[in-house]
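Aggregate trends can hide what the representation actually does to any particular protein. In the encoding step, the backbone of a single protein was reduced to a row of integers, each denoting a local shape. The record that follows shows the chain in one-letter code together with its fold in token form.

***
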Amino acid sequence: MKAKSYMKMALATFLTATTLLSNASEPKEDKPIKSDMKELKEVDGIKLKELTYQLKVDATPEQVWDVLAKYGNVASFHTIVAESSSIGGSGNEVTMGCERSCTIYDGKRRIDIKERVTEIEEGKYYRYEVYEWVNFPLKKMFVGFGVKKDEDGNTILYQVQNYRLKPSFLTGLMKGKLQKQQREALIVCKHYIETGEENPDLEKLLKMEKYKDV
């Protein structure tokens, strides 16, 4: 019985990995970034890989932060998040320790996650830990969103992911897919900040000329 159970678990892991990798794009170089967040190379004895992405936004840092701070009800404007809600007595505004649950879809696969803010500097950035998940091969993940000015005075919206997948070999193999998701998440935020349009069609949005080279 134990052997059969092990084989079922191994098969399920293989099928999940195959499905996720079938949608993965080739990894590309990270865009240069100087994050204000502390480095997360290892947590609870787990070594983490880091991915970053950034975009210029035609808005003030204060305007960008106002959008980033919409933590609990992110699904009200972010088309990638199908459902979201504050949990554990948290409000919608981002604060230290606040929690939310989110549902996203990878094709037809439903992924449910719960997240808790672990680091924040008001007006600049926050980072949350994905502490519970269904249908995604995580071992540990932290995601941070931030806003800053670059040397030329441009407003920069950025994201930092620190993660390890399970089994470990997926950590490197899925880099391209995860960075593609970073880019898409930031484009949706940028579009909402600049236009006010909520939940745009993602496929149409990504085909817009202004987003092809970002």
Summary: DSSP finds five helices and nine strands in the chain. Residues 49-211 form a domain with the Alpha-D-Glucose-1,6-Bisphosphate; Chain A, domain 4 fold (CATH 3.30.530.20). The CA atoms of residues 80 and 185 lie 7 Å apart. The chain has one domain: 49-211.
